[in-house]
Amino acid sequence: MEIRATLGRVSAVPPPPSTEPGPGPGPAPASGRRTGRRRLGIVALVVLGVLAAVCFGGLGFAYLVYDRATQPDRSTPTLAVRQYVDSTFANRDPGRAKLFTCGSPHLQDVQNLLSDLKAREKRFNISITVSLADMDSTTRGTSGTVEADLRIDTPESDGGLSRSSQRWRFGVVRESGWRVCDAHKIG
């Protein structure tokens, strides 16, 4: 600042504007709003990542639980035969019955019995039920036999039931659990 004195008066005169470039005001401080949005975006991405991981983990866990719950239990020869007979005669579900058979089964006698029962049901407009009883199992290594009585209950016109019993031998093998490979009526 320059000081001038004139006729006894002292006054301050501002300096002339400089033509030299100065250091300038510097970078503008980041806006608090912009920084908050950036942090919010990062937090949102982290939360979404965690949620996605939890969801995919949950889906994987649900699949394993479902798979185990629907996996047929073929842990013993008698259980495999029981489930095969139930699937074949009670549920009449060949797809499910196939889960309990080996790769090349010889089950024509079972299919013949099933066809005969279906024909009688159609002819007399009845429902015939088949169940297992008195099961005996013998295994040697990866093969074995299960002998069982097939009990066939036929409704009578008077409301009663007529029961017949047939002794059957089921050949089983261990292929990812026990499976039925052949079946024949005996005795």
N-to-C series of helices and strands: EEHHHEHEEEE
At CATH's second level, what is the architecture of the domain at 77-186?
Roll
Protein structure class: alpha+beta
Number of helices: 4
Please explain how this structure is put together:
It contains 4 helices and 7 strands. By secondary structure, it is α+β, with helices and mostly antiparallel strands. The protein has a domain of 110 residues: Nuclear Transport Factor 2, Chain: A (Roll), CATH 3.10.450.50. It has a 5-stranded mixed beta sheet, with helices on one face. The chain starts with a strand and ends with a strand. The model has no long low-confidence stretch (mean pLDDT 84).
Break the fold down into its secondary structure elements and pairings.
Layout: E1 2-6, E2 9-13, H1 32-70, H2 77-90, H3 94-98, E3 101-106, H4 108-124, E4 129-140, E5 143-155, E6 161-174, E7 178-186
Parallel strand pairs: 3-7
Antiparallel strand pairs: 1-2, 4-5, 5-6, 6-7
Fill in the keyword field for this structure.
alpha+beta, 187 residues, 7 strands, Nuclear Transport Factor 2, Chain: A, 5-stranded mixed β-sheet
